[in-house]
Amino acid sequence: MTERPQPILEVRDLRVRFATSRGEVRAVDGVNLALAPGDTLGLVGESGSGKSVTLRAILRLLRSNATTTGEARWRGQDLLAMPEKRLRALRGREIAMIFQEPMSALNPVIPIGVQIAESLQAHTALDAAGRRRRAIELLDLVGIPSAAQRLAGYPHEFSGGMRQRAMIAIALAAEPKLLLADEPTTALDVTIQDQILKLLLRLSRELGMAMVLVTHDLGVVAETCERVSVMYAGRVVETGPVDRVFTAPGHAYTDALLRSMPHGGVARAPLRPIPGLPPRLDRPLQGCPFTPRCAYAEGRCGAEAPPFAPVAPGQEAACWASDRLARREVPA
Amino acid sequence: MKDGALLQVENLTKAFPLGRSLADALRGRPQRALQALGGVSLSVNRGETLGVVGESGCGKSTLARCLVRLYEPDCGAVRFEGKDVLGLTGEARRSYHRRVQMVFQDPYASLNPRLSVGDALAEALTVHRIVEPSATRDRVGALLDLVHLPRDAADRYPHEFSGGQRQRVGIARALAVEPSVIIADEPVSALDVSVQAQVVNLFLELQDRLGLSLVFITHDLRLVRHVSHRLAVMYLGKVVETGDTEAVFTAPRHPYTRALIAAVPQVDPHQRSTREAVRGELPSPIAPPPGCPFHPRCPIAEPRCRTEVPALDRRHGGWPVACHLAGAPST
Ligand SMILES: Nc1ncnc2c1ncn2[C@@H]1O[C@H](COP(=O)(O)OP(=O)(O)OP(=O)(O)O)[C@@H](O)[C@H]1O
Ligand SMILES: Nc1ncnc2c1ncn2[C@@H]1O[C@H](COP(=O)(O)OP(=O)(O)OP(=O)(O)O)[C@@H](O)[C@H]1O
Ligand code: SF4
Ligand SMILES: [Mg+2]
Ligand SMILES: [Mg+2]
After folding, report:
1. Between B222, B259, B269, which is nearest A222 by CB?
2. What Cα–Cα distance (Å) separates residue B80 from each residue in A210, B98, B100, B295?
3. Looking at A197-211, A267-281, B61-75, which range is the least confident one?
4. Model confidence at B273: pLDDT above 50
């Protein structure tokens, strides 16, 4: 492995269980992540694989039916163990989060401008006039036209994409050192998405902001991130440099994910989704969780969990078929 | 009425009044408004998918909400099977609401947090008397199968799902009442490519089997090319180009459409940032530019573009486009 600088965020063996009326759901099942200043890590994986829960767990923003174990070290201190008061001081200031569903994070009865100003008030020394100026500047940065006239608008008066960008403005208000961005550009068209991603990359380069970018758009990961981790059923099943993982995946799930993308092929021809459903998370999993849906599965896959092992420099995967993927060698 | 047009929209406009500050009111400044739709015309045929694309804030959701009468448009007409929709009342209005369903862009805000998913679906089935009460449970299960959610999802509440799972609940709810038209506002934007493919295949299949019509609003150009027969490109509350999807993608006639298509991100990491996006000042529906709404960002604008509004028409043959300089279609 190449020499990497000291991580500022180190997540070790993160596990999240939800208590429900139907039993216990293991949403996150032993996740490890490490980020150095300025790092950009893409986090991808099927719907329900635990991406949002992982980010929320790091900042302890899960509902009360969740139990979290493991470590999330921020500059050496465990976020999961520190007193709530101390964590609140870090949240929004050093570590900011962009939530997947803006309406879940924005207050519906407070104008957008006031919500940005509140974030500025909590995390900067600006006076009221300075906060107003900065709020306009931030809305402008995220591409909201007539920003000054928009400050008085309520969330429901913004379009879906504008709400998402207003939330990005709130998250960036304090110039955080780490940004946990959960699908920050899903509601955006390519041109504005491009503008937002360039803004995030600039902050990462100029201010050394580290970023975890959750997205299902592999194109966005390719454009923005140096490294990528792939999640499946609550686990990271592959991690490595984006250009390696996307061209020579080491896990059969990553391979299948890449193949289910529309490639501008025949119009209106069916796409090729991965067959079947992800496993239930309220049952114990044996072996590799992807086995029932995997074209490469062999005898031991369903019985023996594959180790998370190096497949190339800087790239690791937990798959028994790593070396068969490139040759498309499917068992008879 | 155009042959086969099931849903027809003519010259729809919608403005929202802007909050006026006390200072403005005292100085007697006029109340300002935000023009979200500035005269939109389009039509959807039976069994057809119309893709609607355009920049964030250009009015796509407002259009969708006008179509299902969540917003009352200021002017213009909406016709369904040739009949005026905006004047419907009573039973006729209820029937329209069943036959034209909407999938909302924000599932978090559109699902009732206190209803389990099974109850929410059952409610839709009962209100519109889709199945016998005794068959409700089976039908709920079948709907969950359709959108690839496990059957035990019926007992769960909206907050117990991931974002993409919630989006699929919204789709199941729209499908429950067996509509003729689905207005789908970013229906798969929160889904990973594999589940996205499953849902898209489901739409295509229902279309073939039941002749479902779809208005598919999305910012994903790769996807829209894949699913839609025809395309409408919106800019600042107006349709600026509309035509057969393949034709528009192959030889876009409006400079904005060209810029949109050029900006599609590439999956290949080696092709980073070689693409051109639309540049220049973002347009504002509060102070729309005079003339062609695209002129401040248009690379080929001429003096008349700054003063004369280009109409959406066929110019030199081909499909409708709203640009003074659109030449004959180049195919
Ligand atoms: N409060 C909760 N109670 C019970 N289960 C939950 C709760 N929150 C999430 N889950 C479950 O945990 C799993 C992981 O959810 P998560 O939101 O992390 O998925 P995700 O990877 O972000 O998916 P998506 O791409 O759809 O947003 C899902 O199966 C979800 O149903
Ligand atoms: N209820 C409302 N009150 C005031 N303004 C509104 C309202 N609904 C929408 N608008 C404004 O109308 C314009 C168009 O919004 P709309 O939601 O239709 O955009 P959109 O094309 O769907 O964008 P996106 O891709 O971001 O979802 C925006 O400027 C928005 O702020
Ligand atoms: S009318 Fe003029 S400004 Fe508008 S798109 Fe055409 S060339 Fe550009
Ligand atoms: Mg999520
Ligand atoms: Mg919208």
Report:
1. B269
2. 52, 13, 9, 35
3. A267-281
4. no
